[in-house]
Amino acid sequence: MKKLFALLIFFGNIFFLSAQERAYGDGEYFKFRVHYGFVTAGYATLKVKSATIKGKDVFHVRGYGETVGVSKWFFKVEDDYQSYIDKEKDIPYKFIRKIDEGGYTKDIEIDFNHNTKKATVNDKKHNETTVFSFPEDTQDMISAFYYLRNQLDTENIKTGDVVEMNMFFDKENYKFRLKFLGKEVLDTNFGRVRTLIFRPYVQSGRVFKEKESLTVWISDDNNKIPLLVKADLAVGSLKATLTEFKGLQHSFKILVD
After folding, report:
1. Under-70 pLDDT residues of the chain
2. Keywords assigned by UniProt (predicted)?
3. 183: alpha, beta or left, given left = phi > 0 and alpha = psi -120 to 50?
4. I need a labelling partner for 210 at 20 to 30 A (CA). Which of 49, 83, 86, 178 fits?
């Protein structure tokens, strides 16, 4: 529960597309229902719109998640993640993380300078500004989703293949790794859909039971839509199911019996 939206953003890192054509664009929108069994814990959204930052054309992506109903009474979560991504280079210029998870709060802005490979982290909660180095081709939590959708090739990926990428989050560099598990036809809210299945390696302990506690199904088409996420957490099993979408760049393929 506590990591409601952070999980969904983390899951987003595994949705791929080959570099031949852009997978997303201005106006794309996803809405997820986050639930324990039949109990709805909350909702999360991802929205894309065109913008400019320091004279550069970017996609401004905002991810927002919150608990609802009874879950909100017991443990209120309100998470806001934003990224400003260069439209041509698929690299982040700014990342925002503003969260309130049961009273645990963060208010951080990160400015990326890809020429100097320096990230300036402004911790607004503690009124601190620090600078960190980052490696080539580093992404933030949100930009990684969109970078991988555009840049990585799923045409030739094989079961068991592991993909790695550099990520900077809060004040640390990470090596993100995930494994391709294969393909499956999945029953969704929209019909039966051909999907690709991935499993990211996550840190076990406080949130996840094991390093391989997540499984994600995405549409096997040019959109690479995240359809279902299953997570085995330290406090139980959680699912995130796509319930709404709009503004897709390509047709959404549904199988007809």
Report:
1. 1-20, 202-212, 234-235, 257
2. Exonuclease, Hydrolase, Nuclease, Signal
3. beta
4. 83
Beta strands in the chain (DSSP E): 29-36, 39-53, 56-67, 77-86, 92-101, 104-113, 118-123, 128-133, 162-169, 172-188, 191-200, 214-219, 226-233, 236-246
**What are the boundaries of each domain within the chain?**
4-246
CA dihedral sign, ordered 27, 23, 136, 180: positive
pLDDT confidence of residue 234: 64
Q: Which of 91, 80, 82, 94 is nearest to 142 (CA)?
A: 82
What gap in Å lies between CA 8 and CA 24, rounded to an integer? 18
CATH of domain 4-246: 2.40.360
CA 48/CA 219 separation, integer angstroms:
19
Residues 6+ apart with CB under 8 A from 219: 193, 194, 195, 196, 225, 227, 252, 253
Residues 226-243 pLDDT 10s: 999 998 776 677 899 999
Instruction: Quote the CA–CA distance of 235 and 230 in Å, as a whole number.
Output: 13
pLDDT of residue 38: 87
**Helix ranges, 3-76 (H):** 4-12, 69-74
Torsion of the alpha carbons at 126, 130, 134 and 140, rounded to the nearest 10: 30
**Both tokens of residue 153?**
């090739």
